[in-house]
């Protein structure tokens, strides 16, 4: 049906902060239903410094316009460090700016993650990231202002994106598991940002092993985009959030 038509149910335009991780593209297509496609634009973040993040923010509206010229239906901004760099409320402000630039609906990573957490009724979470601690601290403050508490967090302290991508896939699982189990009291769930490490396949493993709910950048992106794009149907095998569609 509709063979050869790009995104005949939903054509998502994604702004990635770095060159697109190949595994992220592969796993997106493993998870989404037939008729959903993704076109991407990459920004210039090579390392997670404030200077690189500020430069990336400057290029986001131009990237949104470029994606609009490829007939996408929806703009999705991926990557939370640049958003929390600017502080509380910037996720919504950036979504408005991208929407105006593209003439299309727009969603930010941070806003979709918060929406997913609220929908799943997750008020306390353990958070595992490959970032430096100062980015974790910003994430904790941003989420606290949204009445979501990070009760334990681990930052691997990696600055350069290329080094994050060198991490073996199981590292994400083991760091998230350890962070969750070492929390002073059992959190409602686990939050794992960053598209440069891990795998969507770790979500189901963590949820089953720990009897919890996991929100990552990838499942939040797919969940929020399919909801906004009115593509219905539960997706199984990748955790509770996508199964709830």
User: Helix count?
Assistant: 11
The tally of beta strands, per DSSP, is 8
Q: Indicate the low-confidence ranges by residue numbers.
A: none
Fraction of residues in β-strands: 15-25%
Class of secondary structure makeup: alpha/beta
- How many domain regions? 2
The helix-strand sequence is EHEHEHHEHEHEHHEHEHH
Radius of gyration: 17 Å
The chain-level mean pLDDT equals 91
* Biggest β-sheet strands, sense, barrel: 4 strands, parallel
Span of the ends, CA to CA = 23 Å
The CATH architecture of the largest domain:
3-Layer(aba) Sandwich
CATH topology annotation of the largest domain: Rossmann fold
Shape: globular
The percent range for helix content is 40-55%
CATH class category label of the largest domain: Alpha Beta
Q: Please list the strands of the largest sheet in the order they lie side by side.
A: 2-1-3-4
């Amino acid at each position: 049906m509709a063979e050869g038509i790009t995104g005949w149910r939903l054509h998502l335009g994604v702004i990635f902060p770095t060159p697109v991780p190949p595994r992220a593209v592969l796993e997106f297509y493993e998870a989404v239903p037939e008729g959903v496609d993704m076109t991407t634009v990459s920004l210039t973040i090579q390392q997670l410094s404030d200077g690189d993040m500020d430069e990336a923010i400057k290029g986001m509206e131009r990237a949104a316009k470029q994606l609009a010229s490829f007939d996408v239906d929806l703009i999705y901004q991926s990557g939370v460090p640049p958003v929390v760099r600017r502080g509380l409320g910037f996720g919504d402000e950036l979504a408005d700016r991208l929407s105006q630039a593209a003439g299309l609906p727009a969603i930010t990573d941070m806003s979709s993650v918060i929406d997913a957490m609220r929908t799943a009724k997750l008020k306390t979470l353990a958070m595992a990231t490959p970032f430096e601690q100062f980015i974790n601290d910003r994430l904790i403050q941003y989420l606290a202002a949204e009445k979501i508490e990070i009760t334990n967090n681990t930052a691997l302290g990696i600055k350069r994106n290329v080094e994050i991508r060198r991490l073996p896939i199981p590292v994400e699982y083991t760091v998230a598991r350890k962070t969750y189990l070492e929390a002073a009291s059992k959190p409602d769930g686990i939050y794992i940002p960053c598209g440069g490490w891990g795998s969507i396949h770790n979500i189901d493993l963590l949820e089953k092993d720990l009897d919890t709910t996991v929100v990552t950048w990838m499942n939040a992106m797919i969940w929020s985009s399919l909801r906004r794009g009115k593509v219905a149907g539960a997706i199984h095998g990748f955790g509770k959030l996508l199964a709830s569609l």
